[in-house]
Amino acid sequence: MRTTSAIGRSASELERRTAVNRLAVRSSTGGFTLVEVMVVLVIIALITGSALLSFGLVGGASGASRDVERLQSRLLAARERAELENRDYGVRLLPDGYEFLIFDPLARRWLTSDDRSFGTVRWSLPLAVELDVDGRRVVLRQQAPDDAVDTASAAPVAPDFGVDPSGEFTAFELRLATLPPATRYRLGLDDAGELRLQEERAQ
Q1: Which pTM does this prediction carry?
Q2: Where are the alpha helices (DSSP H) in 31-178?
């Protein structure tokens, strides 16, 4: 009897181990490895990115949006600086971006800023730019200057628009559009004299 029980227990233990081994084999052959999961995720990300680019949700439009939003943020920061330092800050538009100028009362001229926060900024992609100041169109320069002096006229540079020590901006409206004009942006002042950014997507 004892021998039979031992044999029975041995057989039961053997069957249990066999079943466990079968389950382990099934789980190892039926599951995914970490490498396979990562490959699938990469493929999904590539497909999603391509779809977003096709619909224009990322890329050119978003890059232009970041450029204009950054300009708006820097203009607000320049207003705070102008009030704190009691001097004028200006913006000079370039063919491929813009730069900040600071008025030096001692030298009585506009100078480029040494502050990296107000350094020269290049658009991340080509933009069509138009500027109105006091309701009049401003003819923008087509060639970037080599330094802080206009070589053509040998005259000190001047900003296209800016903000005075009281925190009041020049009455301006800056219009930018991606090329081809799929998205248009308007940055200017509202009735209260505050900066307002508007975005218009082409239909």
Answers
A1: 0.64
A2: 34-54, 60-85
Residue appearing with tokens 């900066």: 195
Structure tokens at 161: 């628009």
Candidates 198, 114, 85, 99; CA nearest to 158 is 99
Name beta bridge partners: 200. 184
Select the CATH number that applies to the domain covering 60-201 from these four: 3.55.40.10, 3.30.200.20, 1.10.287.130, 3.40.30.10: 3.55.40.10
Q: Would you write out the chain's pLDDT as a tens digit for each of its 203 residues? A: 444 455 455 556 656 666 555 545 444 455 678 888 888 887 887 676 555 444 444 444 578 889 999 999 999 999 999 999 999 999 999 999 999 999 999 989 999 988 888 989 999 989 999 999 999 999 987 765 554 444 444 457 899 999 999 999 999 999 999 887 688 999 999 998 899 999 988 66
Task: Answer whether 180's CB lies under 8 Å from 191's CB.
Answer: no
**Which strands, in side-by-side order, build the sheet including 172-178?**
136-137, 127-133, 172-178, 183-189, 195-201
